[in-house]
Write a structure and sequence with these properties.
Blueprint (H helix, E strand, L loop, with lengths): L1 H9 L1 H8 L6 H8 L1 H4 L24 H9 L1 H4 L5 H15 L13 H7 L9 H16 L18
Helix pairs in contact: 3-7, 7-8
The structure holds heme C (HEC).
The site of heme C (HEC) has 21 residues, from helix 4, helix 6, helix 7 and helix 9.
């Protein structure tokens, strides 16, 4: 019995290695860590969870927006290594974000992500922080007014 058990475990390290999130593709990591809320392709309930598809790239117009993406608690505290989170975020911003990333925007580096996720936005109102940026993005960077959908009517109303 014992021998069978040992044999059964023999393949386990290899399996665990294969299942380490850091070794999954950025899309697989996105699906595991973010997809439940943000949807398979970056769209779920737009009023309760902001759309990422064709939208998230606008934040990279602002230095604060670039940091915001990494410092969001759901991002900073995700169960990912710094390397995996960097790949995941570049997938989210440059692939799901589509054409909305400003020209010349650099991909996130592991070092940048590693530093930023260590100062998560836990001391500020996320809603207000976001609203201020969204106003600037729409007024000055011609961002889609779809950015205003999130939060619309979901605080204390029947929607
Ligand atoms: C529990 C649900 C949930 C999970 C899980 C989640 N998010 Fe979010 N996400 C939100 C909500 C709600 C917001 C709006 C700001 C806030 O309250 O965090 C948001 C905001 C964002 C934004 C900013 C978009 C905008 O328009 O303001 C980005 C980028 C983002 N999430 C990416 C991710 C990534 C990447 C992951 C996975 C590592 C992730 N999120 C996991 C719910 C979630």
């Amino acid at each position: 019995m014992f021998r069978v058990f040992v044999l059964a475990l023999a393949g386990l390290p290899a399996l665990l290695r294969a299942a380490t999130p850091g070794e999954l593709s950025p899309r697989a990591n996105y699906l595991l860590n973010c997809g439940g809320c943000h949807g398979l392709n970056g769209v779920s309930n737009s009023r309760l969870v902001p759309d990422l598809k064709d939208q998230v790239g606008f934040f990279l117009n602002l230095a604060e927006g670039r940091r915001y993406v990494v410092r969001l608690p759901n991002v900073a505290f995700s169960m990912t290594t710094d390397e995996a989170l960097t790949g995941l975020l570049n997938y989210v911003v440059f692939t799901l974000g589509g054409a909305e990333v400003p020209k010349g925007a650099r991909p996130y580096t592991v070092r940048e992500v590693s530093e930023l996720r260590r100062s998560p936005l836990t001391e500020v109102s996320l809603v207000q922080t976001r609203q201020a940026m969204v106003r600037i993005l729409i007024d000055q960077y011609h961002a889609t007014t779809g950015l205003r959908l999130y939060g619309e009517g979901n605080y204390g109303s029947s929607q």
